[in-house]
TrEMBL record:
PROSITE patterns attached to this UniProt entry: ABC_TM1 (PS50928)
Membrane topology term: Multi-pass membrane protein
Keyword Cell division annotated: no
Biological processes annotated in GO: amino acid transport; glycine betaine transport; transmembrane transport
Gene3D superfamilies: MetI-like
One Pfam match: BPD_transp_1
Official protein name in the record: Osmoprotectant transport system permease protein
Signal peptide: none
Family under the similarity heading: Belongs to the binding-protein-dependent transport system permease family. CysTW subfamily.
GO cellular component, one term: plasma membrane
Assigned keywords, A-Z: Amino-acid transport, Membrane, Transmembrane, Transmembrane helix, Transport
Ranges that cross the membrane: 26-46, 53-71, 77-97, 140-163, 183-201
Organism expressing this protein natively: Pelagirhabdus alkalitolerans
Length: 214
């Protein structure tokens, strides 16, 4: 209990620093997720629409997910140097799999009868995708986005190892200085961020499920 009191006191005494680090952390995660959506949704659609491309696309994003985070950032460091931009690229790669896979699954799970009905009223393949298949896949996409956000928040804590910012600075400093108070003080807001992201995106996911279930 005394230890937690010390952690709380440390965080209160450095509140402005923690606010700044939290904002940095959120910015890195949001940027990475935005890029992952821009790239991942089209890749998921391509995988769903073209059977020959599906195993290639899904295998590539699976491989990216399997690379340990430290190894991924070390590889990126060689090519892109130190800094926040390199961290964002790494988070982008880690966020791709759940977004690509869930977009793919969402489109494949659309009831064939609905697709056939769309074709029956003269919809083109593009109209079917835009007005029927993609809207119905949004609950799956939201589930993937939820997973991607939690992963990105967690992986971003090792950003300082390659010159990035965020809450990982306190965690890494705590490890280097063998200071448990700083380590835990950095880990707590990072965990809270992950919980908040999971909760809020879970709410959005449930709303989309109810909307398209009616």
């Amino acid at each position: 209990m005394d230890f937690l009191i010390e952690v709380g006191r440390y965080m209160a005494n450095n509140s402005s620093t923690f606010v700044s680090l939290t904002i940095e952390h959120i910015i890195m995660v949001v940027q990475a997720i935005a890029y992952a959506l821009i790239a991942g949704v089209p890749l998921g659609i391509l995988a769903a629409k073209y059977k020959k491309l599906a195993p290639v696309i899904l295998s590539l994003v699976n491989i990216l997910q399997l690379i340990p985070s430290i190894a991924m950032l070390a590889i990126l460091l060689i090519y892109f140097g130190m800094g926040t931009s390199t961290v964002v690229i790494g988070l982008f790669f880690y966020s791709l799999l759940p977004i690509v896979r869930n977009t793919y699954v969402g489109i494949k799970e659309v009831d064939p009868g609905i697709t056939e009905a769309g074709k029956g009223i003269g919809m083109t393949p593009l109209q079917l995708l835009a007005k029927v298949q993609f809207p119905l896949s949004i609950p799956f996409l939201m589930a993937g986005l939820r997973v991607a956000a939690v992963i990105a928040v967690a992986v971003a804590t090792i950003a300082p190892y390659i010159g990035g910012g965020g809450l990982g600075r306190e965690i890494v400093s705590g490890i280097n200085l063998q200071n448990e108070i700083r380590l835990v003080a950095g880990a707590i807001p990072a965990a809270v961020l992950a919980i908040i992201a999971d909760f809020l995106l879970g709410k959005v996911e449930n709303k989309t499920k109810r909307r398209f279930a009616n």
